[in-house]
Write a structure and sequence with these properties.
Layout (H helix, E strand, L loop, with lengths): L1 H16 L12 H11 L4 H24 L7 H22 L7 H26 L11 H9 L8 H26 L5 H4 L5 H4 L2 H4 L6
Helix pairs in contact: 1-3, 2-3, 2-4, 2-5, 2-7, 4-5, 5-6, 5-7
């Protein structure tokens, strides 16, 4: 239970940061949390805890936007784009598994930023391709794809500002999660630190004495 304690705290922090309006657009702990889960969480926990937390909060957000604000988020294109989001999350977890928890903070920070870039490219490409809200700017051409990655939709802030917030938040939360994970990691007991004796060292003096032949 002790090993599960601090990951659950991190999951609770992630859920709180997804409350609509709490943080600026695309300034999110999601990218850093998923990447750091791959780095620091043991075994299957690196998968079920971040993906489960995201699934529960996505259900709540879908209900809020659909029933509360009236957005059409229950369409096929919306679910297809959301599915690609989870493929991006899986890619970030796999990226995190390539890093060692004892690695330098700068190295981990670089991994978190790389994960944010990958997530931004995948999710914005999905929004352009599936175009769940029918934005006329997102034509299925190279120009439409570049528009989705840079300027976005008329009447809204350009997507390059979202990309900036993605990088800033990923760097900040990756550093916070990495430092917190190291500070809360259980210390090794003295027994775990003692070297294991070799078979020769474990034998008693009597067993090491030469035996007389018959």
């Amino acid at each position: 239970m002790r090993k599960l304690g601090w990951p659950l705290v991190f999951a609770a922090v992630l859920a709180l940061t997804r409350v609509p309006g709490l943080l600026p657009p695309n300034f999110s702990a999601v990218y850093a949390f998923v990447f750091c889960a791959g780095v620091f969480f043991p075994g299957a926990m690196a998968w079920w805890l971040p993906l489960g937390t995201l699934a529960v909060t996505d259900l709540a957000l879908t209900a809020y936007y659909h029933f509360g604000l009236g957005y059409e988020v229950l369409s096929g294109p919306s679910f297809a784009a959301l599915g690609l989001n989870y493929l991006a999350y899986a890619a970030l977890i796999l990226l995190g598994r390539c890093f060692q928890p004892q690695g330098s903070l700068v190295w981990l920070l670089g991994g978190g930023l790389l994960g944010a870039v990958l997530f931004y490219l995948i999710t914005n490409t999905a929004s352009w391709w599936f175009n769940p809200f029918g934005n006329p700017e997102y034509t299925r051409t190279l120009e439409g794809w570049l528009r989705a990655l840079t300027l976005g939709v008329n009447g809204y802030p350009p997507t390059w500002e979202f990309f900036r917030n993605t990088l800033l938040s990923s760097g900040l939360f990756t550093a916070l999660f990495a430092v917190a994970a190291r500070l809360t990691a259980p210390a090794e007991s003295p027994a775990e630190k003692e070297p294991v004796p070799s078979p020769a060292e474990s034998e008693s003096p009597a067993e090491l004495e030469p035996k007389e032949s018959a």
